[in-house]
Structure formats: C-alpha cells, structure tokens
Amino acid sequence: MADLHAFFRPQTVAIIGASKKPGKIGNVLVKNMIACGYPGRIYPVNPKEEEIEGLCCYPNLSAIGERMDLVVVAVPANRVIAVAQECGLTGAKNLVVISAGFKEVGKEGLILEMELTRICRSYGMGLLGPNCVGMMDTHVPINASFSAVFPKQGNIAFISQSGAMLVAILDWSLATGLGFSRVVSLGNKADLNEADFIADAANDPNTRVILCYIEDVARGQQFLQVARAASRKKPVIILKSGASQAGAQAASSHTGALAGSDLAYETAFRQSGVIRARSMAELFDLAVAFAHQPVPKGNRVAVVTNAGGPGIVTTDSIEMSELTMARFSKETTQELRANLPREAAIYNPVDVLGDAGENRYRFALEKVLADQSVDSAVVLVCPTAVTEPEQTARAIIETHRIYPDKPVLAAYMGGKTLAGGAKLLAEEGIPCFTFPEPAVRALSGMVRYARARELPEKEKELELGDIQPEPVKEILQKVRQEGRLTLLGSEASRVAGCYGIAVAPIVLATSPHEAAARAQEIGFPVVMKVASPQILHKTDIGGVKIGVETPQEVKKAFIEITENVQRFLPKAVIYGIEIQKMMLQGTELIIGMTRDVQFGPLIAFGLGGIYVNLLKDVSFRLAHGLTRQEIQQMLTETRAYTLLRGYRGEKPKDLGAIVEMIARTARLVLDFPEIGEMDINPVFAYPDGAFALDVKITIS
C-alpha cells in the first residue's frame, strides 16, 4: 500500500498554476492553504508572478531549491505531463492533479492520463486525481483543494469519487455542525484509489469512522484485503452508486443469469465487513452514530416514548430490521410499575405518557439501560403542552454518561418546539432524528458492524488435499486448441473430478456399440446426453434419454438422439453421446460460479434442478478469502438449508460433503482464472455424501 504520511502531513507544498486573480482556481488553492492554518511552507509557482497572496512566487520547481512533499497542479491538461516530469526530476513525493481533461473527456484524454500515471510511477510519486477537487485534513491542518468550505474538525474521514457530491456535503456540514478528520476527492483514480485512502484512514488516530461515496472499485483484490483489515479497526461505510457490468451480460449459465448487476459489490462489502448505505441520508446518519456512540454488544433495543403511536412505529421498524425488542428482567418491570403512572406501558416500548417531564424520562431510561438484557436504547419525544425538550435532553445526556457502553439515539418528533432539545443532544454526541426510522436504521448498521468485526483479520486460503491441476491444464489447453469455449460434459466432469468434486461417472461414446460397452462398465441404468458445445438445452431437442437399462436400449437411444439432433439442429457439431450413471434421487442443489470483472469468481449455492430460475433460492460469496465458516453461512441463507436439515421426516443430508464441494469449486476457479463460468446443476445431496450430475464449464 502507498505510504501517505507525506501526503497528508507535508512539510512543503507547491501550487503549480497559482494565480493572483480572485476567482481563479489557482488563487483559491493558495488562499485555502493559507486560511486553514497550514503550518508548513507554501510555494506558489507561476513564471508570470513574483508574489501571490503575500507569498514569494517561483517560476518553476527547480527555482525553489527544496524537495516538495506535495505538489498541487492546476494547469491545463496539455501542460500537466511536462509538470509531472519536472516534479519527478526535482524529487517531489506526491501530486494532487486538480486539472480536468483526461479520461473523462474521451480517448485522447485517456492517453494523456495513462502517460501521467506512467511518469508518476516511474518516479515513485503518489498521484491523486486527475480531475479532482483535492484533499483536506482538519487536524494537520491542510486544505489542498478548491472547495469553498473548510469543514469543522471532527473524527469522520470522507472519501468521495464525486467532487460535486463532496463540496455539497461540506457545505451542508456547516449547517449541521458535522465535523471531519479528513476529506479526499478521488477524481479519476489514475493511481491512488479508495483502498489506499481507506487503509491510511484506518491507521489515522484522528479518524473514528470512514465514509466513502464510490461509483466503482479500481482494483478489486486490493479493495477486499484493505477493507477487511480496516473494518476490524473502524467502521467503513460505503454508498455505492452505479452497477458493475460483469453481471449484466446475457450469461449462458444459470449462475450468470442469477448474478445481478450489483451483486458482486454487495457480496464484496459483506465479506469484507463494510457497511453499505443505501442513500446519502443513511450514509451520514450512520456516520453520526458511529462518530459519537459505542458499538453495541448485541441487537436488543429498548424504546422509551411519551406517545403510543410512535412507540408502535419504532417497534415495527426494529422487528423488520436486524434488531429485536429487548425483554426486560422481572426486577426492571417491577420498578417501572412501582414508579411510573398506572396507565404507563412498562414492557417495551416503555410509554411514560404524554405528560412526562424530564424526571420521568430520566427514571425510565436509567432503569432500562441498567438492565443486562438491553444493548441500546431509542428515546422518542413528541411535543405536548407539558413536554420539557431541553430538560429531557439533559436527562438523556446525563443518563447516558452513567452507561457509556450502551448507545443511545433519540427522535425528537417535531419542529420548532423541540429544536432546542435536539440541538443539545447533537452537541453532546447523542444522534437526534426527526423520526424514529432513521434512528433504527443507524442502530441496525451499528449491529451489522459489530458482527462484521468477528470476520477473520486475514484471508485464509482453503486447505484442500487430493488436487490435480496438471490434468486440468491439459483439458483446457485441448479445448482452446479446438477453438471451443465450452467444455463437453465429460470434459467438465473430469475437470471437477481432478479437484476432488464427486461426480456421477460419465464417459463419451462415439458409436452405438461403444456406448453399449461403456454403459455396461458404468452399470445400469444410465442417462444418455448429446455431447455438443453448441447445444445448451439438450432436452428441448430430444438430446437426452433417462433410465436406459440394457445394451440394446443404449444402442437404440444413441441412434434416436443423433437423429433428433440432426433433424432440429443439422449444423450442430456432435462429438458423440455421453453415458452417465443414473443416480438415486437426492435433494437437488446448484453450485455455480460466474466471474466478476472487479472481484473475480463469485460462487453460488442454492436449490437446483428445475427450481433454479423459478425460485431463485441462491446465496453468493466471493471465492477470494472464502472460508469454510462462510460457506456454512451460505447454506443457512437459503431455503434449501431447511430441506438439507431434514424436512417432514426426511433424513438430514450430509452438510459436510456440500461444504467440501463448494470449497473445492472455489479452489478450482481461483487456480484457473480462464474458467469464466461454471454450473454444477443438479448436485444430488444424500444423508451420506453428495454427487454432481451435470457440470458445465465455459472458458475465456
């Protein structure tokens, strides 16, 4: 990973393209660096000026006579390459290229950007941008950006691929009082990307929570490793817009068809411990909660309210999320009953009634937070004629100080009447919302993060024995030499078998006589299928025969299948007829893989056979970093799991064998990146073992 110490804490900063003219970006950059209180040395560079904003101006970097830790570039795109070359020759460490006119404008800009990246890498210079707003750190402080706003100091790092989104959020933050530790505009991500800045923020003592707005991930494997390590230290919350194109293609496999356009990102975030926000509002609601509140130890929530309706709404929201309503101890309910009005509700939500003052709120909140079965609390305040907004806010703040290890969030459900109390809560780090649902969503995100921290810190490769990669190489090489992209069923089954995947015996026969002999070797009954890479749906054209029980029937079926194919698809190339052992009926499953362009192999598991596209009962994981524990979790996320455990008197199936088959499939597709798609459908699961019946593999 890039060492960004000199990037965020430079001793020397040069601004190339600095300007005297107010309103010019080159002038704003100089003013921002001065105004933020940057403690280092600032060097404006412009051959036409001698002084800018009271600072000595230099004609070029060489004239400064000092090595730059950071160079901010704001010149036209056609001059950036020469500037980057000069930066490299003078030993500059990092560049922030504000200039636009690169890959965002088309092919010529892309060529320019590639040359810029090449120069920076050849000299070992870090590059942020081009086409970015810049960056800030409020604790250094430094403001190497042309933003109109320098944010309040705080503990939230914000990394944004969109410059417009970034400046809008900074402007909004001044009105809300939200503080940031650092802010980074990624721009085109020609070199440094979201993973580099997430990794650095994870080690920044001034950052407590990391927020990202991204439209894509630059390098998938780097991101997975960084995000997994960072999320164990601090919450990483990402709002991802747009969609990967990898899953949107018309795929030939069931797995490819099931993998939605955004599925790989969803899976990558989950496996790496990232919390995904669905809107800008949720992104910053989560940020506020994480920035000031402790991570909950569990998902049990207590609700204290002065109105029944809002309490019910909050309860519904909790039960529909990953949270649950806390069940109070007998002692807690007895004390609530003894000290609250007779009409009050005491069993969660606790309704302290509309005439509740600060003392009643204080008592109820203190009792529920003291209960060991409560992990967090949501306090609702509705305006009545006797509501005490400010006093109640102080009661909430003081009670939370007694129980600082349990998060407390509030919803002041009103406007002007409650504004003073809401302001007090926000100033003291108690997230306060207008309605309860955002508070519940924020708590739910905090609970998801608490669970995500339990992920292994490092990826642990699946340890598997009995693997034979050499025969697989030979098979794939032969297929490529024949100009094919699709393996025959017998070839795909051999590939699977080389990685220890149990496959029902299958052989290829090229004549009726050979088919009969092979069937006798395998043992009757058998299934017969046409072997042609051009025929995906064999049953539709009469290319399959099931339950063939004698050599004579095999010969007859061979001829019938061949005639059917020639009649319906006369131009199809037929390699022969595949003879496969007919297995006893088991629970039908699918194990599959489609390859995502950013994150690599995406493994699928679910109900198989004819139910695949009908029920879409499938769970996904990325093969990279996949562990047996995560595979077991995959199983539990499907309805197939209910069948596998034993349903309506059926014997439980061999879950260990299924986990092993998924693990071996993952290892296979990791070892052979040329495998583009793979379907094992159906897999028959039995009380003792599991067998693959039909294996499809396509290569790139």
UniProtKB/TrEMBL annotation:
The root-end lineage is: Bacteria, Bacillati, Bacillota, Clostridia, Eubacteriales
Q: What is this protein called?
A: Acetyl coenzyme A synthetase (ADP forming), alpha domain protein
Where does the CoA-binding domain start and stop, copy by copy? Answer: 7-102
Q: Which UniProt keywords apply?
A: ATP-binding, Ligase, Nucleotide-binding
Q: Does the keyword Cell cycle apply?
A: no
Question: Which PANTHER family does its entry note?
Answer: 3-HYDROXYPROPIONATE--COA LIGASE [ADP-FORMING], ACETATE--COA LIGASE [ADP-FORMING]
- Give the family per the record: In the N-terminal section; belongs to the acetate CoA ligase alpha subunit family.
Q: Which InterPro entries match?
A: AcCoA-synth-alpha, Acyl-CoA_Synth/Transferase, ATP_grasp_subdomain_1, CoA-bd, Ligase_CoA_dom, NAD(P)-bd_dom_sf, Succ_CoA_lig_flav_dom, Succinyl-CoA_synth-like
Source species of the chain: Desulfofundulus kuznetsovii (strain DSM 6115 / VKM B-1805 / 17)
Write one Pfam family the protein is assigned to: Succ_CoA_lig
The answer to whether UniProt assigns keyword Ligase to this entry is: yes
Q: Which GO terms describe its molecular function?
A: acetate-CoA ligase (ADP-forming) activity; ATP binding
